[in-house]
Structure formats: C-alpha cells, structure tokens
Amino acid sequence: MLKFKKNCCKKEAEVFKALGHPTRLWIVEQLADNQEHCVCEFVEAVGADFSTISQHLAVLKQAGILEDDKRGKQVYYRLSCPCILSVIQCFKNRK
Hints:
There is one protein chain. By secondary structure, the chain is an alpha+beta fold. The protein has a single domain, classed as Arc Repressor Mutant, subunit A (Orthogonal Bundle). 51% of the residues lie in helices and 15% in strands. It has five helices and three strands; from the N terminus they run H-H-E-H-H-E-E-H. The chain has helices at residues 10-18, 22-30, 39-46, 50-62, 84-92, and strands at residues 37-38, 66-71, 74-79. It has a three-stranded antiparallel sheet. A hairpin with a 2-residue loop joins strand 2 and strand 3. The longest helix is centred in the middle third of the chain and has 13 residues, at 50-62.
C-alpha cells in the first residue's frame, strides 16, 4: 500500500463534492444527451431563480465537469467530462 499524501486526491474530491447536491446531479444528467443547454432552460425546469441555478452551474464548472459558451446574453453549458455519467449510472443501478 502506498503512503497517503494530502493532495493526492484533491481534484477527485472536488468533483464528488460538486456532485453532492441533487440539483447539480440532475443538471449533469440533463446534459447527457451531448447537447448544450442554456441557463434559462435549467431555471424553467427546476423552478429556481436565475442566481441559484447560476451558482450550481458555477460549482460544476469550477470542478471541471462543465464547460460554457457565452452567446450574446445567453450562456450555454455542456459536459466537459462525459465519463462522469457512467459513475452516476453505476450508483443508480445499485440495489
């Protein structure tokens, strides 16, 4: 067994921390279709205010899960790490 180093799993821990909210997990799952979705779509679907959704998206982006593309006044998000979907699906299939 290797000796534990404090920073060895820091990035991975940030990803799991970012996924640690039901709304953020749902957002990631909505992006599974390899399409982009704008903030306004998430606001409407979740029923939360713009700032709340923006904060959730910022957490996911900071963790490296999402990428964004600003077009005019709209910001569109897509998965930058599609393999995260297999991890989520693995947990969904557990009994």
